Amino acid sequence: MPTIALRVIAGFLQGERYSLRRGRVKPSQALQEMIFAFIGDEMNNIESAVNDDGIERPTAVLTLRLWIKLRTVILQDAAEIYVRHPGRMDHHLFRMPVFTSEEFMVSGEFFWFFCCFYFIF
Q1: Does residue 54 sit in helix, strand or coil?
Q2: What is the per-residue burial (b if ≥16 Cβ within 10 Å, else e) of 28-49?
Q3: How far apart are CA 13 and CA 65, in angstroms?
Q4: What contacts 24+ positions apart, CB below 8 Å, involve 86-95?
Q5: Distance between CA 36 and CA 103 in Å, rounded?
Q6: CA distance linking residue 56 with residue 4, whole number of Å
Q7: For residue 13, what is the DSSP state?
């Protein structure tokens, strides 16, 4: 679906500019790699399979690349939930190691940067 159509469906007027504040905050690479931690191994497995039989696997590669991009979105959304809706932190999703890690929690650089950025702007 075209981006313009998605913006209209989301409630923005055609031509209206918008910005998501959380989209400006980039989590550390270490934190990102805690989401879908298996991707590196799977990319290596795909490369080995291609080298073995010569058959490309574009769907698998593109799916893993999409998941790599989604790492940032997941962390940004989780940080916003943590800041704006702390009561939701008891959800089972937030029991995953990445969300209980020091890097994500209050002492983590990403979380503090997000909080400061969110409340200042």
Answers
A1: coil
A2: eeebbebbbeebeeeeeebeee
A3: 31
A4: none
A5: 16
A6: 33
A7: P
Q: Is 81 left (phi over 0), alpha (psi -120 to 50) or beta?
A: alpha
Q: Count how many Cα atoms sit within 13 Å of the Cα of residue 9 in the half-sphere of its side chain.
A: 6
The angle subtended at Cα 87 by Cα 86 and Cα 88, nearest 5°, is: 90
Instruction: Give 55-110 as a DSSP string.
Output: ---HHHHHHHHHHHHHHHHHHHHHHHHHHH-GGGGGSGGGGSHHHHSTTTSTTSHH
Ramachandran assignment for 2, one of left (phi > 0), alpha (psi -120 to 50 degrees), beta (any other): beta
pLDDT tens, residue by residue, 11-37: 777 777 777 777 777 888 988 999 999
**Residue 5 C-alpha from the chain's centroid:** 23
Q: Full-prediction pTM beyond 0.90?
A: no
